[in-house]
Design brief:
mainly alpha; globular
């Protein structure tokens, strides 16, 4: 058992868990991940349910807000997320 106050950078997958098969290391996050997910706009939550990679709500919200701040519509913001995911998948191969 690790000493109190020290956190491992990698998180061991739970038995039966679906964390995705990516070369990116899993990390522990502070706060409640479901609360962050629930706070996302409905189109972004829908996109996350169909995403090929295990995106964090924080990273999705960041890309979403950047796209909307640049004048994109919600549909264009989803396309930007699709392009970011395809680029991440190409890097993983």
């Amino acid at each position: 058992m690790a000493p109190r106050g020290r956190m491992s950078r990698a998180v061991e997958p739970r038995a039966g868990g679906n964390l995705g098969a990516t070369p990116q290391p899993a990390r522990r996050r502070r706060g409640c991940p479901m609360a962050r997910y629930d706070a996302l706009p409905p189109p972004l939550r829908q996109w996350l349910t169909q995403a090929a990679l295990p995106w964090s709500p924080s990273s999705c919200r960041r890309l979403w807000r950047q796209a909307l701040a640049a004048g994109a519509s919600p549909d264009e913001a989803i396309e930007r997320l699709n392009r970011a995911e395809q680029a991440a998948l190409r890097r993983a191969v």
